[in-house]
Amino acid sequence: MVVYALIIINKAGGLIYQRDFAEGLNKLSINDYLVLAGTFHGVHAISTRLNPLHSSTARSSTDSRPEPPSGIEVLETENFRLQCFSTLTGTKFLLFTEPDQPNVDAIIRRIYELYADYVMKNPFYQIEMPIRCEVFDRRLGQYLRPLNSR
Amino acid sequence: MASSQPAKPPLIGQPSSAQRGSQPGLRYPASGKTIYHRPLNRSRTQELSQASFAYLFGEMVSYAQKRVTGIQDLEKRLNTQGHPIGLKLLDLLLYREPPRTQTRPLHIIALLQFITTILWKHLFSRPADALEKSSNPETPDEYMISDNEPLVNQYISVPKEMNQLNCAAFVAGIIEGVCDGSGFPARVTAHSVGKGEEGELWPGKTVFLVKFQPEVVEREAYLGRT
């Protein structure tokens, strides 16, 4: 059970956070990470358009808002699995794990919680800008280190 | 203007324009009861959402950050925001004490114990972690209150270029307000003492340095002799 890396992409497709937690993935240059984030953002946007529309009867019968099309959720290779969690505001969390890592949903939600607490409530963080929050880094490490050493 | 719309009754809770003119920005509920009419003990055990406080405090820091010249100026502004809260809390918390202990603190130690226990419990639901007197014989007027993890700083990461800043200056302002209000004028400042090392137990540990004015120490010495 290994969580390799986390990437956070803002709603414009810019990379705002990248961190490795374990060996296993090749290191890319910072430029390549930016390209990866931008490319994934584009492909994700296209995939939301490909998604068939919800049936019109379901939409008109309920007064609740329809679920937005989700786009790419999982991308799997032989060596890793990439899970994407897109928030309602369009921020994307990409988590690279081993292919058989269980409960990725729960992990990614917990990371979102940490982001909501230690990034969004920090008065020195400028929204949509790269995340440089010491406490966020620390809490993330505290949460993921025990998971990786299990 | 009232004559132009004679049939329309004024909306409940909305002051007429004459009232609005005399008290800009202040609105009174239709019943005339403001929070000052409520019993003072009603909200004693009520708790607030920490998330909403965190957002409010974040905005207070951002507001204080506008048009400041430096970190000291910013800390001064946060301190000023806390000061009136301390003045008011002193009265409120003493009022809520049982009648026998309602007297104001008369000695420095009694005052500091009031701050570290009663004030701290009211604000953060726990007492402060330590209260020390400065061991330096040249500064007998300095006392230190430490808090291992200040609640106001819980979600705040100060950027590297401002590492002198500690947003708990706001709490220092509250302490200063309590000291000033009880007749022990003092300067209170907040200092981070965490070293920023990996695996540190309390990375956000903060020390509030309370420096009393010389006349306070002088009076204390006189009181001690009699």
UniProtKB/TrEMBL annotation, chain A:
Organism superkingdom: Eukaryota
GO biological process: endoplasmic reticulum to Golgi vesicle-mediated transport
Entry keyword set: Endoplasmic reticulum, ER-Golgi transport, Golgi apparatus, Transport
Cross-referenced SUPFAM superfamilies: SNARE-like
Chief location: endoplasmic reticulum
Pfam families: Sybindin
CDD domains: TRAPPC4_synbindin
GO terms for cellular component: endoplasmic reticulum; Golgi apparatus; TRAPP complex
Cellular localisation: Endoplasmic reticulum; Golgi apparatus, cis-Golgi network; Golgi apparatus
Subunit structure: Part of the multisubunit transport protein particle (TRAPP) complex.
Family per record: Belongs to the TRAPP small subunits family. TRAPPC4 subfamily.
Entry protein name: Trafficking protein particle complex subunit
Organism: Amorphotheca resinae ATCC 22711
Organism placement in taxonomy: Eukaryota, Fungi, Dikarya, Ascomycota, Pezizomycotina
UniProtKB/TrEMBL annotation, chain B:
Descriptive protein name: Trafficking protein particle complex subunit
Entry's localization field: Endoplasmic reticulum; Golgi apparatus, cis-Golgi network
This protein's record includes keyword Transport: yes
Spans annotated as Disordered: 1-32
Superkingdom assignment: Eukaryota
Matches recorded under InterPro entries: NO_sig/Golgi_transp_ligand-bd (IPR024096), TRAPP-I_su5 (IPR016696), TRAPP_component (IPR007194)
GO cellular component assignments: endoplasmic reticulum; TRAPPI protein complex; TRAPPII protein complex; TRAPPIII protein complex
Protein's UniProt keywords contain DNA repair: no
Organism for this UniProt entry: Amorphotheca resinae ATCC 22711
Lineage: Eukaryota, Fungi, Dikarya, Ascomycota, Pezizomycotina
